[in-house]
Amino acid sequence: MDRKKILLVDDSSTVLLMERMILSKSEYDVVTARDGVEGVEKARAERPDLILMDVVMPRMDGFEAVRKLRAEDATREIPVIMVTTRGELSSVETGYESGCNDYVTKPINGLELLAKVRSCLGQ
Amino acid sequence: MPNDRIPKSAADGAPGAQTGRDLKQVNDKLRELISSLKSNHERLTEVRAPAAAPAPRDPSPGSPAIDLEKKRLAAELALAREAVEHAQAERERLRARLDEIEAENRRICDEYVTVQEQSSELAQLYVALDRLHAGQTREETIAAIQEIVINVIGSEEFAILEHREGALRVVHAFGVDPDPLRAVPLDAGAIGRVARTGRLYVAGREGAPSPADGDLSACIPLRVGGEVWGTVAIFRLLGHKPSFGPSDQAVFDLLSAHAGLALHHRGGAGAPRAAAG
Question: What distance in Å separates the CA atoms of residue B100 and residue B106, rounded to the nearest whole number?
């Protein structure tokens, strides 16, 4: 089976490392970006199978990044899981409206994250 | 037709009427012969018929044929019953095996969840340790502690306090007002007690929390060697996190053992400061 590629977009080194550790040991290839702008660029270039997108980031937030991804033919079909904290839970609806497929909350629970990733990848 | 059955006179070929009579005579003898053969055939058929005929459809009770048929059917019934019993036993065996497999499946699923939880916990610890020791400066180490508290423990309200000049003094606060924490006496509340005793405080773990401690959820002693260098006071947790879990305890222990050391090795206390929540 081909290894799936996941793009992690977050400005927190701790969250990126955490996500990378959880996903890498489950045999996913991981690429990272530190904000929404870099996330959109990496999505175009890397064509990942899935994106984990933080909400609050410098330069471009997660909602705007997802809207941009959905507006482009090359990236509109890539599933996106939003990664939110308490204050952003009220914005889950905004996340769905922007085009995300699912969300997980911080602090990240490894089991929950893996379950949602597998679900989004149809595994 | 065999020639020996034709009268000698006819065969001799007498001319005229004699020949006609002879032929008529031969014909008559042939008819007799045919009639005789038919009669014999019918008798033979009658004699053979009872032995070749099938069993009567409604034989009288107690006849040998009925007994034989009953025995045959009884034997067949016994075989069928044996087959049914065998099938039922096999079904029970398969059902028991299915139960075993389902129990095994549940056990494996539970083990998988446990392993994943342990793996996640190890990942948390690795990340926390990596972040704590990756910082080159005191500010980077404080930022690492902040990220651990927010993203690993799950709180956006906390403060780091150092033990200086007989009191605990806030050196960093996030999401809380630092003013009440600028000088916390060592004999005041849970935070002072943690600094004094070096024992972790988790609200509600040892009786009801004191109203004086307000929203304090946990207080972690920061150790340098055998000394308590300061504390990390964690107030309200994120809304979707109702309480601390087992993995949080491991992170508390790690912070207690490494955060103070990391800060201590990266220089003395700077001026207390607060970050926006």
Answer: 10
Q: Which whole-number Å values give the CA distances from A21 to A31, A101, B29, B153, in the listed order?
A: 12, 22, 119, 17
Q: What is the DSSP letter of A85?
A: -
Q: Which residue of A has its CA nearest to B128?
A: A14
Chain A residues whose beta carbon lies within 8 Å of the beta carbon of residue B130: 17
Put simply, the answer to whether B156 touches A114 (Cβ < 8 Å) is no
Residues 23-42 of chain A whose Cβ lies under 8 A from any Cβ of chain B: 25
Residue whose token pair is 């020791």: B133
- Residue B259 φ then ψ, to 5°: -65, -45
Q: From the CB of residue B205, how many other CB atoms can be counted at a distance below 10 Å?
A: 10
ipTM, 2 dp: 0.81
List the single residue in B with minimal CA-CA distance to A90.
Answer: B239
Per-residue pLDDT tens over the stretch B199-236: 999 988 877 777 777 789 999 999 988 888 899 999 99
Q: Is A3 on the interface with B (CB under 8 A)?
A: no
Q: Is the pLDDT of residue B40 over 80?
A: no
